[in-house]
Structures are given as C-alpha cells and as structure tokens.
Amino acid sequence: MKTNTNMANADEVIFSGTPGESRRPSTTAALAGSALTTVEVKFNAGFGNSVFLRGNGGGLNWERGIPLVCVDGETWRWSGTIQEPIVFKPLINDRVWATGSDLKIKPGQKLEVRPTFGWPALIIPAVREPCSIPASTSK
User: Fold this and answer.
1) Using an 8 Å Cβ cutoff, are 66 and 52 in contact?
2) What letter would DSSP give residue 65?
3) For the segment 28-46, what is each residue's pLDDT rounded down to a tens digit?
4) Alpha carbon distance 5, 94 (integer Å)
5) Which of 59, 82, 96, 115 has the fewest CB atoms found within 10 Å of its own CB?
6) Which 8-state DSSP code applies to residue 126?
7) Domains in the chain, CATH or no CATH each
8) What ranges in the chain are assigned the alpha helix state H?
C-alpha cells in the first residue's frame, strides 16, 4: 500500500491508502454507509498533558474537545465510524490550538498528524492524568 504525504503549514499529514484506490469496507459498514476512521496525533505533550480534538462531524464540535487515547509517549489516537468527512484540529489540554489550517479526513481513512503548537502550550497546566502505560504487577 502506498502512502501519500501532504505538508500544510509545517504540519506533517500522512494519509494511508492512495486516492482512487479500491477499498471495500466491511459488509456492516458498507450497508450503513460508514467506515472506521482513525486520526493519530504524533506529539509528545509532556507529563500531565493530553491531546484533544475539536471539529465538525463524527461527534466532534468546535466548543469542547474530545480527549484522545494515549497509545505511547508521543502517539494519541481517535477512532470512530463516520459517514461523512470531518474537519478537525488538535489541541493540548483542550486549550492550545495546533498552528496551521484545519484538517479533513474521509470515512475509512487513517491519518497521522504531526502538529506544531505555539509557545503557550509549553506552560499550560495539566488538566488530566498523564499518559502512562501500566507496569505489569505480579504478586
């Protein structure tokens, strides 16, 4: 599978798949006209900080962000089944906006974003528990 890379305002955006590439969603998704869509934000938010998405469509809105799931020290993920393209933008702690233009994703795509944030992002106090991967415990 080929990967397309687009650069917009110093932010790195990577779409999986190739435009025009034939894809078949699962039968359930095809019947509903929707497909699993994933946004991965690659950013080390620092201890105690979180990454959120705000936008239009897919359960997002521009007034209050949805927290992303912390996958590792610099990967934050949102996944949802959508029927229409969504427009969105990442934020740190649902307060500091990523620089650059709004981003758009279509149903069934996987998008990797490497946003940049302005100076205040570095001093915003944490609003959630830090991302941590639990250590295995044995007794």
Assistant:
1) yes
2) -
3) 444 457 899 999 999 999 8
4) 26
5) 59
6) P
7) 3-122 (2.60.40.10)
8) 27-32
